[in-house]
Amino acid sequence: MRMSLLADGIVDDLRELVELGGGAVAEAAERMSSVLVKSTVSRVLTLLSEAAAEVSSQLPDGEVELRLVGDDCSFAFVSDEPPPSGDVELTARITLRLSDALKERIEKSAAREAMSVNSWILRQLDRRTRSSAARWGSQLHGYGTS
After folding, report:
1. Cα→Cα distances 72→6, 48, 116, Å
2. What DSSP state is assigned to residue 85?
3. Which residue, among 37, 17, 43, has the nearest Cα to 29 in the 3D structure?
4. How many Å apart are CA 140 and CA 40, to the nearest integer?
5. CA 84, 92, 118 angle in degrees (round to 5)?
6. How do residues 80-131 score in pLDDT, each as one tens digit?
7. pTM reported for the whole predicted model
């Protein structure tokens, strides 16, 4: 879900309220809108974080994470199952579409570490998924813009 849609909706609602009053109302609404948008988005993110924690507490084997990437907010399930050992046969496949620039960076990184691209990507995914599960206990509160 895009947090900017929430912010835009609040601003639109304030604009409708401005039409009910005169110039003084418009000036007050303009000053209040940025504070109100930031506060509301922050409170919604806190609510979503608490919802993820509540659902996680009821799951037998994993947890729900609230993930923020830029303007996008999403939930993800993270399993508590240990990652497969090196002896496990790799049979699952995922098709990725990458930019040429990203593909080149991945190939260079793999070459620097004397690894195949596939092995390098597997190692990066394993590290990232392990570290995100380990960070669950910390919470970030507030609002940021970029």
Report:
1. 11, 13, 32
2. P
3. 17
4. 16
5. 80
6. 665 555 666 778 888 889 999 999 999 998 888 888 888 888 888 877 777 5
7. 0.49
